[in-house]
Amino acid sequence: MTHVPRTRVAVVFGGRSTEHQISCISAGGVLRALDPEEFEVVPVGITPEGAWVLVDNDPERLAITSGRLPSLDAGSGAPVVWTADPSRGISVHEPGHVPEVLSDVDVVFPLLHGPYGEDGTLQGLLELAGVPYVGSGVLASAAAMDKAVTKVLVAAAGITQTPYVVISDREWTYDRAAALGSVRSLQLPVFVKPARAGSSVGISRVTDWADLELAIEQARDHDPKTVVEQGIVGREIECGVLARTDGSGPESSVCAEIRVLGDHDFYDFEAKYLDDVTELAVPADLPDEVSDRVRQAACAAFDAVGCEDYARVDFFVTDGGDVVFNEINTIPGFTHISLFPRMWQESGVEYPELVARLVRTALTKRRGLR
Ligand SMILES: Nc1ncnc2c1ncn2[C@@H]1O[C@H](COP(=O)(O)OP(=O)(O)O)[C@@H](O)[C@H]1O
Ligand SMILES: [Mg+2]
Question: Do 114 and 52 lie in a common domain?
Fold first, then answer.
């Protein structure tokens, strides 16, 4: 019997963003799904403080146990140093031991949500280190993380969006009256958002102009750049996109709908993770004609931002049937109950197949500028 070497996959997860715990759960799902016959997994965790540690390949440790969300700390494993020098790769530094260089990793699966992971920073390190990785490259990751930049790219592709205003740190600091004036050109309610965040942190729905400044200050606690959008009345519909490897354009999954119940004004942090107040429908109950338009817009947004491999694209669908783009996530939630895997499951791609497909595709990608 010939021995086929296994593919060494470093799954990088945790991270410094507010979505640290969700990333740990996503990683647990991926570790469980990677077939040990084909893949050897190197789980690399990043603590909320930014320390890199080599974690045991124990998916149970990364599951929700008795209602507690998993997280990492400096004691979760031996310190790992990942250099940008392609000849050095990764090394493990056990206290009191000579640093041990890990043999080459074939491919990296970054599973970090939000800033310092989904935003092109980690992708930049991996480009420098010369290691192929799953997902979008530096530019698309950074562009998709920044809601102000995404809007410019998506608008250029002719995709419908809600009217919005961007307030830079300089404008807020030196020309606040003008910034507030331009926001008042929008109609209430407005949504005030940090340009680069996630999980709805720092987002407020403003129904009275008197509350605008406080909402902007709250958004600025997360990012000095703020986006203010006119509120859309409509259903929240999401769609998964996967790149094809045969040179044809990306393909889309069935759509999903998120319905927020109870007294949440919108899909806020509590509704996303803490409360049992959301109802998810996969596939979404939409006329074919509407879901076709969502799916086309999802693929168009994927291409407009220059995404690679996969993304989840989020929309609003109004009562009149208008499809309005909201945002694109280049590393969507990847837990078993997350929408991205569920939409693909409903489209005929089971979770383990989805994970394996992403890793295999990343291995075949061209190195360097793409
Ligand atoms: N323009 C808008 N109109 C109506 N609801 C909005 C609008 N923007 C955001 N929301 C609500 O806020 C939630 C979070 O906003 P989103 O832009 O998706 O931020 P995040 O990147 O944190 O997920 C959305 O899921 C939706 O419920
Ligand atoms: Mg969102």
Answer: yes
